[in-house]
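thought: fold this chain, then report.
action: predict
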Amino acid sequence: MAAKTTYPHFVDPQDVDFTLRASISNLIAKTLNVAGVDADSKGFGIRELKPQNRSWVLSRMAIEISHRPSEYTPYNITTWVSDYGRAMSTRNFVLDCEGEVFGSATTQWSMIDFNTRRAVDLRYIAEHNDAVWAEEPPIERAGKLPAVDAEATTEHRVAYSDIDFNRHMNSLRYFDLMLDCLPLEILTEDRAVRIDINFLNETRYGQLLRIGYRNEGDRWEFEIATEDDTIACRTTFEWR
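observation:
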């Protein structure tokens, strides 16, 4: 039977930044890791897909964080798949500490066949009776983000530590590159934030990336592209 699933977590010392609170990157990492663990437990995760030369690929994500838990704080991440179509599946998350919600996220995933480099029809998920819990996402889904008229840029060459088992740059590394562009005082304050990201094209080892960004008040817009102007991702950070 379909159900939400809750996974306990703990803010270890390696999870915090200099404020001694869980870093934004770490909370996103733990959230996305739960997606993999839950899919594996229900029979359509990476363990099942790898022998078929298939994998899940994150397409869009929206996450809202009201505050970040302190070091040594226990918390939970609850997840469920709310819907799926032929090409995309929606997975949702709620993060809470002793019943108090401090984070919510919704993600959209496609499945890629690496033999054909094409998306796989996701309707086979219907074979898994516990796959879908028909409850709407806890926050608004990430929409299509427009091009960014960058005011400043920095560069990064994709290195060994950036790439994952799909042999392209790990989704989490994009967040790190963008967070590194923000003024330190923004990250010092424990302000609420909403982050929207569109992943558009993969990047691979050795490619030189251009991270362009602009700022308007509490809103920061990012666009990461390759040397040939192929857009890898677009992101907005909106502090509240």
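thought: worth noting. The chain has a mean pLDDT of 90.
final: tokens above.
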